[in-house]
Specification:
Elements (H helix, E strand, L loop, with lengths): L1 E7 L9 E13 L4 E14 L5 E16 L2 E12 L8 E14 L4 E15 L2 E3 L2 E3 L2 E16 L2 E14 L6 E12 L2
Antiparallel strand pairs: 1-2, 2-3, 3-4, 4-5, 5-6, 6-7, 7-10, 8-9, 10-11, 11-12
């Protein structure tokens, strides 16, 4: 079992301040000697502080991980959850997604990663432009690849590329982005 409490507090748009309660139950099991599965499902409550509205929804996360060799892993994850909105006239987003990650350990210091994902974002409430109500739903496609180099126990570096395409039912929100990144991470 799992319980998660999330307190969301905006600085400017207090109408979206909310508290979330997630109640989940799940199982984790060995499918085969090289495969593991996990599923968590339950109920989510989003309680908006200033409007008194409540949102009750089914939430779930499922994952299957297969280890082809000690250096090669494939992970498939699917989920359904609520998310915060990025449109001021909508209250939240219902997100459904699936992600595939391929991890390859190349050497003791270098690891490669390729991922593909699809996300469907359904905005609750309508976008209002000049008095016209527009129902917004986005399909987001993402592909990425990267390399990680571990210098030592406390310092690592990542380099990679991410392609992102958002197809929105409201066409001005559609876009394509290409991101190249270089990251250095240290820990104590």
């Amino acid at each position: 079992g799992q319980y998660t409490f999330i307190d969301i507090d905006y600085d400017h748009n207090n109408e979206l301040d909310s508290q979330e309660h997630h109640f989940l139950g799940g199982l984790e099991w060995d499918i085969t000697a090289k495969s593991k599965g996990r599923i968590k499902a339950g109920y989510g409550i989003k309680d908006f502080e200033n409007s008194g509205d409540n949102v009750n929804t089914f939430i779930v996360e499922a994952q299957v991980r297969h280890r082809f060799t000690p250096k090669t892993h494939l992970t498939l994850t699917a989920y359904r959850k609520t998310d915060e909105t990025n449109i001021s006239t909508t209250s939240y987003i219902l997100t459904n997604g699936v992600r595939l990650d391929y991890l390859q350990i190349l050497t003791s210091k270098i690891t490669g990663l390729v991922n593909l994902s699809y996300v469907n974002d359904e905005y609750k409430d309508d976008l209002i432009i000049n008095g016209t109500r527009i129902r917004v739903e986005d399909d987001v496609y993402q592909a990425g690849l990267g390399l990680q180099y571990v210098f030592n126990r406390w310092l690592k570096s990542d380099i990679g590329y991410v392609y992102n395409r958002r197809d929105s039912s409201y066409s001005p929100f559609s876009y394509t982005s290409n991101t190249v990144f270089l990251r250095v991470t240290g820990s104590f």
